[in-house]
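User: Quick sanity check before I run a bigger batch. Here is a single chain. Can you write out its predicted 3D structure?
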Amino acid sequence: MTGPVTLVAFVRPQALPCGQPAHLSRATWQHGGVTAATHSTLFPRVPDSADAVLEGLDPEQRAVATALHGPVCVLAGAGTGKTRAITHRIAYGVRAGILQPSSVLAVTFTNRAAGEMRGRLRQLGAVGVQARTFHSAALRQLQYFWPKAVGGSLPRLVDRKIQLVADAAAACRIRLDRGELRDVTAEIEWSKVTQTVPADYTAAAAKSGREAPRDPAEIAQLYAAYEDLKRERSVIDFEDVLLLTVAVLQDRHDIAEQVRAQYQHFVVDEYQDVSPLQQRLLELWLGDRENLCVVGDASQTIYSFTGATPDHLLDFRVRHPGATVVKLVRDYRSTPQVVRLANGLLAQAKGRAADHRLELVSQRPAGPEPVFTEYTDEPAEAEGAARRIRELIASGVPASEIAVLFRTNSQSETYEQALADAGVPYQLRGAERFFDRPEVRNAINALRAAARFGGNDSLLDDAPDLPSQVRAVLSGKGWTPQPPAGSGAVRESWESLAALVHLAQDFAAARAGATLADLVVELDERAGAQHAPTVQGVTLASLHAAKGLEWDVVFLVGVAEGMMPITYAKTDEQIEEERRLLYVGVTRAREHLHLSWALSRSPGGRPNRRPSRFLTGLRPGSQAGAGRAGAAGAGGVERGSWTAVATAVPEQAPRRRQRTPARCRVCGRTLTDGGEMKLMRCEDCPSDMDEGLYERLRDWRGEQARRSGQPAFCVFTDKTLIAIAEAVPDDEHELARIPGVGMRKLRRYGSDVLALCAGRDPADGQDQD
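Assistant: Done. Predicted structure follows.
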């Protein structure tokens, strides 16, 4: 692999490159001609020629679409139309007769993304191209070649491995609570995708800097027992699908050659998320060929905990010196104000991914500045967001174009309640897939029956067109012209049926004369591709689940120290991944962006929280380099509007007259306030509290208070719980040093508290009083 690197990087839209075809005018590809995926026509007309496939692409997207030979690397920023570029590349190659549809394999990471890719290829007239996840493609090959390579039928694939992990723990006589089961399962998954065997786990975890949820030797033991159980029961897991496919292709050259004869052109989306195991499988699919196109953005690497690494993307030109590299930086999704904030976040980033960041250039008209809001407590923050969302919906913004994004799923409940109280419909991202919902399956079956026997169905007597026929059929399944009150299961079911009604209206508008049978075919194809219609409800999602999605309005909530970055992010690499996660959240917004945080967890609580260090120098009133202890990054322009909804805590609260020699463990100042002395720090010094541990301690304290029939503060005060969650003591000696933990409480509650600090179930301990 030799030769020069061809670099295509049209960064600024003001000038067309030399030699550009004359018919490609700026009006063709500027905003309004080139649009983001979700803004494309729902049922577009199939292009009538290969050249028509290229219409509407900007210069960089066109360069991707026409680079059909040799290795191609597309560095694509958020909102720059990467999926549009690669699907048009495949479609152009197929329609021009350069690529055979059956010889192309496009792989990505989620069923939703693969379904969207299949849907777009179908709309572009590129029927027959395989677009799958890594696991789906590998499973098909493994099922086909297993009898030839091994003999017999492929072992049963288990959907969830957590029960097997529990059985392995029982065999090892190791007790794991529910949280530990999930953590150990995640460690096993990480080990397998990084191709680490049980005997090497301890060394591999130490080398990678992973913080194991239990003693590494115990996890290695559990991992080995888990693998033994799978062999005894003749089952495999999802990681085994990749491992076994790799093993078959490595050991059986005849099978490898058969696969390579089938697939000759490969496209990999979200290449920054490839694990070492997936990269190895890709290399075996390729062989010594170079017909590979990869697409990714190192600044959107947010899944390193699963083994994903951007190194394969960043090293692509090292492995393929003759590669064509195209940079997509024209952002068609977000306004200049949102893009400015996103660029500002990355300008403060550090590390290798930051060295390769892309500076986005918005192609949209100016919009409102991002809004930064501070609240007194978390319920007030949720109520403020719900109130603003209700106002937006009343002004005409569809609920489906609004999202509330948070760092952890545990934050969801507060916003569910606030939206329900405000009468705002919502949907949880990551819940059951649309076409798997019982009401959707029943509705499609009813539509299919009506299409088959419509002439004898009295429901359709007064329904002259397709939309009215769909409304008539679904009225018998729970759909009504007006939504039901509330926000429970009945409302969620109605929203699903309403989505089908809206889809039928769009389908009829796009295809004159379409029948009920035509719509059923469309729904079946969409179900196969998991190409769901839009449900009318505000989206609630974690930042990880929001990847690849976009909305007109985004509320980023809980943007405070301890949550963003999360408390357990300790190393520079972990902190930088948290920054990238916030960047992903910011770039989900098309026009309106709201960022907020709360000074305390609950009403009446001490306001000891601070805005995220990532906002330093970017939000009004903050100065880069002058932040509180622990702030990272330098530079940044103060942008946006500022809304203060709380009484601010002064940067330096006045100190009382010295009474004791106690000093703050953060800044070294003398402590005089009793509450501060319990915390062993100043109230307005940054807290490194483990939020999850604090919640577990509060729940445990409530149960102890209930059992003893006394107020919760008689068990431990809030200050003492905060001090415990900050210190996370390992033994009784460390616990006893915390003010508020006397010998009597140490004897009574010590074992429970230490169990919680170690991540164990306190039920294992006994009340020693």
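The first strand starts at residue 6 and ends at 8.

User: Great, the batch can go ahead then.
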